[in-house]
Structures are given as structure tokens and as C-alpha cells.
Amino acid sequence: MDLSVRNAKAEDAPKLAELMNLAGEGIPAYLWGRMAGPGEDALAFGARRVARTEGGFSYTNTYVAEYDGAMAGMLLGYRLPDPYEAGPLDEIPVVVRPLIELEALVPGSWYINAVATDTAYRGQGVGRRLMDWAEHLAAASGAGVLSLIVAEENARARRLYEKLGYQAIARRQIVPFPRCAHTGDWVLMTKEISPDT
């Protein structure tokens, strides 16, 4: 099978929402469920939001890894603003506040908001390919640093990031939510690169 990476399209939104929720440790579905209308499925609501052109979770910030035309994984990333202004923390859902606090520590970095591999394609190099693509995009944007946040208990992901040269620089305690998969801390990791000039 041949693995390729392409820009996401609006019609990818249902699968992207599923993978974003996987990468986000369930936080996206939790938040989407709180915003959805009565009786509306959280992932269906999330897919509608992903299909929009605005917002951080838009398909316009997303890249798809494909094996023979099937979506094997996705990368959601973008350059963080510099200066980084989160706005009043009391207006941000409490489960997201630790993540926002960590993002604020790396203004101007190219932020890997979410990276996920479909379970059918695990162990086939999809995650590594998407991380390489993130590095390419970061360099092209002029960023000298990539950043990401991972749950400290997610040992598999942390090992991959460490192998790729990322280092932990800060942490914040995870705020539990219904069906929260982890306890402990969120860990901010960064990697310095040479930007394209």
C-alpha cells in the first residue's frame, strides 16, 4: 500500500471528527455533546463544526494520511499566534484550561493540536509520516519550534514523540470529565527545527 498525505476536504469531516476525538482523549466529544442540540449525537455535531472553514478544528487546518484512498490518519495543526492571547480563562471550559495555559507558553510555535491513526492502520508508520509532515509544514511556515500536548499516561504516544526529538518542557494537571481516560498531567513537548528561509 502507498501512504500519501493530502489537505483535508469538507466531506472528510465525519471521519475527521472521529479521529480528532480519539486524539483529544475524548475531550472533543465531551464538549461537542454539551453544545449539541437536544438528542443530537456529539460526533455528528462535531463533524458539522469540522466542516466549517473557521475555527481551530476546521478541516482547513487538517491533513489526511491515505492508504490506497482510505483515510488512515489525520493531523490537525497550525501556527500559534504570537503574542498568544487566550482571553479570560473563566470563559473557557474548565477541562480545556490546562491545555490553553500550556499553549500560551509556546507562542509562535507550529502546534500539533491532534494527530491520530485509525485503529485499522496502527503500527504501519502512519503516525510517524504525519509527524514528519508536521515538521515540513512548520519549517515552511517559518516556525523554529513545533509543540504538542500529550497525556503523561499515554506512554505509546510519548515514546514516539521522544524518538522524534521532542522534549517535555511543562505540565498541568488533567481536569477530569465524564469518561476521561487519564489521570495525572498534560505534558507540553517541543522540538526545535530550522525554519525555511
Automatic annotation (TrEMBL):
Please name the Gene3D superfamilies in this protein's record.
3.40.630.30
GO molecular-function terms, A-Z: acyltransferase activity, transferring groups other than amino-acyl groups
- Residues covered by the N-acetyltransferase domain: 3-194
Query: Which keywords accompany this UniProt record?
Result: Acyltransferase, Transferase
Pfam families per UniProt: Acetyltransf_1
What's the name of the protein?
GCN5-related N-acetyltransferase
Taxonomy, superkingdom = Bacteria
